[in-house]
Amino acid sequence: MTQKPVASSRIADNKKAAYNYFFEEKYEAGMVLQGWEVKALREGKVQLTDGYVVIKNGEMFIIGCQINPLRTASTHVNPDAVRTRKLLLHKEQIKRLIGKVEQKGYTLVPLNLHWKGGRVKCEIALAKGKAEHDKRHTIRDREGKREVERVMKQRQR
């Protein structure tokens, strides 16, 4: 009996989030998905870059997360790639986040989607926006690390 290769647990990352925000706290939330969306996630047809999280009536929703349907999607299903999807978190955590988000400058940002125990989880972060000079500092640090790695690689040869 042959085993299936283990798929990477990461589905998608929001790389832009680390550039635009400082992360205060991170949470892992479940996602309410339709069947065609799960199949599309297995194929990696998702984009988190424009996504953000809102809290309405004590419930959390992710908006702007784009899951593109597969070409083989069923004809009796009307797939909506950018529909609002519900996130599942404990009530105490949601109440805590409501208090934090109401403070000036805080927002909720999706960081990544991943598999955990056969279910799709969304890692979200309580984040504060970066100023322009902070973004320049991030770029400078990243380029410095690249230069160090390049020099170390040349010295190993």
Automatic annotation (TrEMBL):
<feature type="region of interest" description="Disordered">
    <location>
        <begin position="133"/>
        <end position="157"/>
    </location>
</feature>
<comment type="similarity">
    <text>Belongs to the SmpB family.</text>
</comment>
<comment type="function">
    <text>Required for rescue of stalled ribosomes mediated by trans-translation. Binds to transfer-messenger RNA (tmRNA), required for stable association of tmRNA with ribosomes. tmRNA and SmpB together mimic tRNA shape, replacing the anticodon stem-loop with SmpB. tmRNA is encoded by the ssrA gene; the 2 termini fold to resemble tRNA(Ala) and it encodes a 'tag peptide', a short internal open reading frame. During trans-translation Ala-aminoacylated tmRNA acts like a tRNA, entering the A-site of stalled ribosomes, displacing the stalled mRNA.</text>
</comment>
<dbReference type="GO" id="GO:0070930">
    <property type="term" value="P:trans-translation-dependent protein tagging"/>
</dbReference>
<dbReference type="GO" id="GO:0005829">
    <property type="term" value="C:cytosol"/>
</dbReference>
<dbReference type="InterPro" id="IPR000037">
    <property type="entry name" value="SsrA-bd_prot"/>
</dbReference>
<dbReference type="InterPro" id="IPR020081">
    <property type="entry name" value="SsrA-bd_prot_CS"/>
</dbReference>
<keyword id="KW-0963">Cytoplasm</keyword>
<dbReference type="InterPro" id="IPR023620">
    <property type="entry name" value="SmpB"/>
</dbReference>
<dbReference type="GO" id="GO:0070929">
    <property type="term" value="P:trans-translation"/>
</dbReference>
<dbReference type="Pfam" id="PF01668">
    <property type="entry name" value="SmpB"/>
</dbReference>
<dbReference type="GO" id="GO:0003723">
    <property type="term" value="F:RNA binding"/>
</dbReference>
<keyword id="KW-0694">RNA-binding</keyword>
<protein>
    <recommendedName>
        <fullName>SsrA-binding protein</fullName>
    </recommendedName>
</protein>
